[in-house]
C-alpha cells in the first residue's frame, strides 16, 4: 500500500520500478507541470507524465480539463481530493504509473459529488471508481484510521438552500434571529473576476465573533471560505457588487454540519443592526 500521506515524497520510487505496474515505455514523456495547474503545485514533484491517466495527449487538454476541478478542491470537500485528481491529471514521472486505489476514489466521490451536484454537475463517467483496483497493494490509498483519529474532523459546511438576505429589519428581529441560531460572525467579503472569467470571493481582515457558539477561532475563516465556494450560487446572490462589503452571517452547527440560515449586509445606515450586536452581549433569550 502507498498511503496518500507518503505519496508526496515518493521515496519508494526504486521499489516501485520493480513492481508489476503498467510499463510506460517510450510512449510517454516527462514534462513540467504547467503554471495553470495550480491544483497540482507543491505536491512533492514538478514533472508529470504525458499522456496522463485521463488519456489526455496534449497539455492544452490537461489544463482545460483539470482547471475545472481546482474550484472543487478549494472547497475542501475531501482531504484526498487533490492527491486523487493530480495522480490522474498529472501523474508523477516514474517508470510505473501509480493509480489511485478504488477506496480512495470512492471516498473522494462520496464527499465531493454532492458539491458537484450543488454546482449543477454530476460525478463524471471518466472517474468511475470501478476502473481502479480494489486490491490495495501498489496504489494510492486513503490515510489510515489512526491518522483520522489524531486529526479530528472539524464542522463542515454543506450544499444548502440559500439563506435569507434581509434588507429591512428591526433590532428585536435581529436579536430573535441570534437567539434562534448558535453562531453569528461579522466578515468583510470582496468579489473579483479572475482571468478565466470565474468569480473569486475572499475574506478580508479577521472574522469578528458576535456569537461564537461552537465555532473554532482558528478554523472559522477557512470554514466560511469553504461555505462561499460550495454554495457559490448563494454567494453570488449575496454579493451584488464588486465593492468589498461587511456581512453578518448567522447559522447553526449540528452534528458536524454547518448551516448558514441568515445573512445581513452591514451598512453604515443600519443602526438597528449595530444596536442589536451591541445589546447581544447582555441579551437574554426567551
UniProtKB/TrEMBL annotation:
UniProt domain NTR: residue ranges: 159-285
Cited PROSITE patterns: FZ (PS50038), NTR (PS50189)
Assigned keywords, A-Z: Developmental protein, Differentiation, Disulfide bond, Secreted, Signal, Wnt signaling pathway
Location(s), subcellular: Secreted
Chief location of this protein within or outside the cell: secreted
Matching InterPro entries: Frizzled/SFRP, Frizzled_dom, Frizzled_dom_sf, Netrin_domain, Sizzled_CRD
Bridged cysteine pairs (disulfide): 40-86, 105-129
GO biological process terms held by the UniProt record: canonical Wnt signaling pathway; cell differentiation; non-canonical Wnt signaling pathway
Domain of life of the source: Eukaryota
Gene Ontology MF terms in the entry: Wnt-protein binding
Listed Pfam families: Fz
Keyword Signal set for record: yes
Signal peptide coordinates: 1-21
Any GO CC annotation of this UniProt entry: extracellular space
Boundaries of every FZ domain copy: 25-142
Classification via PANTHER family: FRIZZLED, SECRETED FRIZZLED-RELATED PROTEIN 2
Family according to the record: Belongs to the secreted frizzled-related protein (sFRP) family.
UniProt protein name: Secreted frizzled-related protein 2-like
Species: Pelodiscus sinensis (Chinese softshell turtle)
